[in-house]
Amino acid sequence: MGDALENYEFKKMLRFLSSIRGQGTELISIYIPPGYNISELANRLRAEYSQAENIKSKQTRKNVLGAIERILQAIKGITKPPKNGVAIFCGNIANQPGASNIKLFIVHPPKPIQVQIYRCDSTFFLDPLLEMLEPDEVYGILLIDRKEATLAYLKGKRIEIIQHRDSFVPSKHRAGGQCLHLDTRVMQGDGIITNMANLDPNRGVISVSQFQTTPSEVERVFKRENDEWLEVTTKYPARSIITTGEHWFFVPSEYGFSLKQAWDLQPGDDVLLVKNIRVEGERQRIQVEIPVKKKLSTKGRETLVKRRKKLGISQRKIGEVLGISQVTVSKFELGKGKISLEKIRKFVEYLGIDWEEFEKKYVENIPLFKFPHELSPDLARLLGYITGDGNVENERIRVYDQDLQTVKAYAELARSLFGVNVIVRKRDSRGHYILEIYGKELITTLKRLFPEVFSRKEVPRLIQLSDNKVVAAYISGLIDAEGSITDRGISISMVDKDLMLDVSLLLLRLGVVNSIRKKRVKPSKIRGSRVSSREQTEILITDKDALEKLKETITPLNKKKLDRLAKLRREKTRTSQIWICGRMLINLAREIGMNTMDFKTCSNFFRNEKHMSFSVFKKAIIEPIENRIKELENVDISSTREFRKVLGLKVEDIAKVVGTSVSPIYRLEKDPRYRNKELEKRVREYLLAERDRMLIKAKSTLKFLLDAYKGDLIRAEIKNIRKIHAPGLAIDLAVPKTECFVANGFLVHNSSVRFERLIEIAAHEWFKKVGEMANQYFSDSKIKGVIIGGPGPTKNYFLNGDYLNHMVRNKIVGIVDTSYTDEFGVREVLEKSGEIMKELAVVKEKRLLDRFIKEISRDGLATYGEKEVRQALFEGRVDTLLISEDLTWERIKFKCPQCGYEEEVTVRGEVPRKVCPKCGSVMNIEERQDLIEELAKLAEETGAKVELISTETVEGKQFYETFGGIGALLRFK
């Protein structure tokens, strides 16, 4: 047999050995390298035999001893190991417990064994032999452009993707313009929310990359005076932003999304907003120096009483010395009254006791309150509750609420957190309850740590820096205080606009889409005072998905609100809309042979008359495209007509490409008697090329759609645009990494300053990173050659730079132009490498299968199918036999025990019960053989070559699935 079949036999043996499982550690594996002394091995086995006699399990001991005896018997006839050494495997392979079936297997490896091993385990040790299956020659493939890079190994016929990285090099599209109003709120990279005027460039800013929010570096802040503004307000989610007319916004378009200046926007246009801000934050440590008060211990008081009595001094005399009444002294000594520490000191000194020694022994330091060591969710919840309905005095905090259960819950929370005096009382005249938290020193500490709680100008900075559990707890407290839950959703209303803007952005950190708007409040009584009509800021949460996330994260202590939250009626809520444009999507779908009929209830979406929610988008758009990919991968190419229909191509289109009229193609499809081999070849080649193109396009489209579906962007329709005339400061940012940032929940473009220099720096860093990866993976001595590929001149720029070390440079065997830089690009390299890789097995196999398909398509010197190939072998017409390695069929020879009738059949899977067609007796299995080996022997008898085809390549998989894994190139018809 040839090398291919020897390798097949070797793989087959390893598959069989790997399937064997012992009942205990009774399977013995021995590796004998070339030149090893066999007598030493025999001596070691005898020693192992002596030790095995001590095995406790009778069955395991019996099997191990039996296996060692079989091995000793086998090596008696070996005086010297073969040139590659030998591997011996022996043990009980019986599947039934208690049964014994000791078998010996001797494997002659295709490469020299490098180690001497004796191992006894429940499985055979096969790692050294499995390593021999790895190809000796490995090629490295590097695909690169400014957007992404892919590194891959070509190991024999297998492509192994080892790295795929996306770059953050900004594209050189049209720059934006200045600027936004100074009060515009942005979230910085660490979670801090601030207006544009107070932004700290060192903290970065939240921007968007690959459809997901991410912290980005701020390179520069720009400021200028401006007196004319535009206030852009969206319908749902309701948000507004004040900007100069020349500032750029991102808008959905037929090309994904594009840029549009504010003064070109119109009511009814859509702009991009974010539905989620990916900031995790971290738990904040709190260091508080808790003040203490000095207190005389009971033992100290008793000591003073005992001393006074011993000296015979009356209580009246002590009262005169201390300047208090005898009654006060009496109450003090009885433990029913108090006197100041200064008077206690006079008392002590008057009795002739050393004060310092007495103080050290009897005066205790009592903390005035306790305080958590970190900003916990419980503390954040209480702070949110105080923010909503609390006010502060010098010695107490008051919080007002109409629900007694809620007040009691927060009272208990305050006691457990601070250990101070907390009172709940009812105010009958006002019909509400008051929670009072006492402690002057505690209040001073809270004001120092969380001044924003009492000013209500913003969310406390420590909350903003905290993790999302703390953020959720703070908002839970705020909802308990100021939240209103109806059938449609949740509303939070307060007079403090900046605070509400902060809470709105914090909700986005939790993935909760929300609207924020102005709200007029009628005259009412607030905390007992008559107030005039005022304007509040309201946060509304009515999004279906947002409410579900809210239920998972927000847990009010107000049981009534918690029950209402659980019973929200989702059917009355709205949903966020995916930003993808319908016209763009149908254009992409048509490129892969789909039309509007393939998508149910989407016609209005494709005409841009209606938008689509994320859940509907997945079912109505993504799933049909996934099904289309499966259809293209599994299409039957044997029928030209059916193949064309699946691809969605017209006969006129094919005729135009192949240079003929439609009539011959119609005849080719409908009349099996019509044979035009040249035309059939051209049509089939075009259809195969179109199928491959559609598959590549469909998979890239699916990836794009999945990224958008999982991303953080949504679309919102503009409700109105209002002009404002007011002098003020306009501010913008330079964000070189992504060229965009999130402001008031909008996705806006960054500064108008050009970033060519920064882009080149970013590209240099990107090439440097790719070079480091290539140096890491391709410097290995096993790598025979490296091929560089990619679209355009980027790959040449990369090669001309000093990014690859000399070891990798010396291995470069070619540069190839490719359209892609992902896995499809790797396959392009194999197709376009030409002479570079002509000797590789994968290239040889591809050319062999290309030749086979061409011959089949023109009814030439090729055939397929077991019956046809077997007949061709018997007639000596086969030049090259092609067999897929994945075939697991057997050739079974049956013989009738009564009449002697014989019959051979090919079986896949379990062997069926065969009845003699002559006498009706059950036939016996006379002989069974692996189909691959049986066909290979037939080929060798006629001088035909044998090629085993793997399924690790696209062509090999197609050969197995379409042609059954059996084919032949013929010498003659």
Describe this entry's structure for a reader.
It is a single chain. With 973 residues, the protein is of the alpha+beta class. It has 33 helices and 41 strands. It has a 5-stranded mixed sheet, sandwiched between helices. Strands 8, 13, 14, 17 and 30 form a 5-stranded antiparallel sheet that branches. It has a 4-stranded antiparallel sheet with strand order 3-2-1-4, sandwiched between helices. The longest helix has 34 residues, at 677-710. The radius of gyration is 42 Å and the shape is extended.
The overall average pLDDT, rounded, is 85
- How many DSSP helices? 33
| Low-confidence runs of at least 5 consecutive residues | 172-177, 525-533, 752-756
Structural class: alpha+beta
Classify the beta-strand content into a percent band: 25-35%
Report on the biggest sheet: 5 strands, mixed
**Number of DSSP E strands:** 41
Helix content: 25-40%
Rounded to an integer in angstroms, the radius of gyration calculated over CA atoms is: 42 Å
What characteristic shape results from the CA principal axes?
Answer: extended
Instruction: Describe the strand arrangement of the main beta sheet, using strand numbers.
Output: 7-6-5-33-34
Distance between the termini: 26 Å
